[in-house]
Specification:
With about 120 residues, this protein is α+β, with helices and mostly antiparallel strands. It is built from 1 helix and 8 strands. It has one domain: Sandwich (Immunoglobulin-like). A 4-stranded antiparallel β-sheet has the order 1-3-6-5, with no helix packed on it. A 4-stranded mixed β-sheet has the order 2-8-7-4, with no helix packed on it. A hairpin with a 2-residue loop joins strand 7 and strand 8. The longest helix has 21 residues.
Length: about 120
């Protein structure tokens, strides 16, 4: 009888271990964007010159799920275009910011319903 109870205990423990493996807390909402890693978060550019900024959309675990990031200028003091030298499958989305007129501006980045702002100061 004790041998039968031993097998029942082993099988029960195996079931618990198998169930625990399916409940991985890191896999939940893996594709849900929660924030951006911005580099730099404040940029300076001269009029008629350009600089590059990056925006990586990340989930709650800090992983980049690889979703497309959009970037638009806040006003006409700058122009924002995707970096043509960036390979499409690289995680950070890189943008080329060109200064048009002197003043404070920004780049609004968005992905997965989350938005962030990169401050851009255009100087002489």
């Amino acid at each position: 009888m004790s041998r039968k109870l031993g097998w029942i205990a082993v099988l029960g423990l195996a079931g618990v271990v198998a169930a625990a493996c399916d409940d991985n807390p890191l896999s939940a909402d893996r594709d849900a964007i929660t924030r951006f890693n911005l580099n730099p978060s404040v940029a300076f550019v001269k009029v008629n010159d350009s600089t590059k900024v990056t925006a990586i959309a990340v989930n709650r675990n800090g992983e980049a799920p690889g979703v497309a990031v959009n970037g638009v200028a806040c006003d006409g003091k700058i122009t924002v275009t995707r970096d043509p030298q960036r390979v499409e499958f690289e995680p950070p989305e890189r943008f080329v910011v060109k200064g048009v007129t002197v003043g404070a501006s920004c780049v609004n980045v968005s992905a997965g319903g989350v938005q962030a702002t990169i401050t851009v100061n255009v100087v002489n």
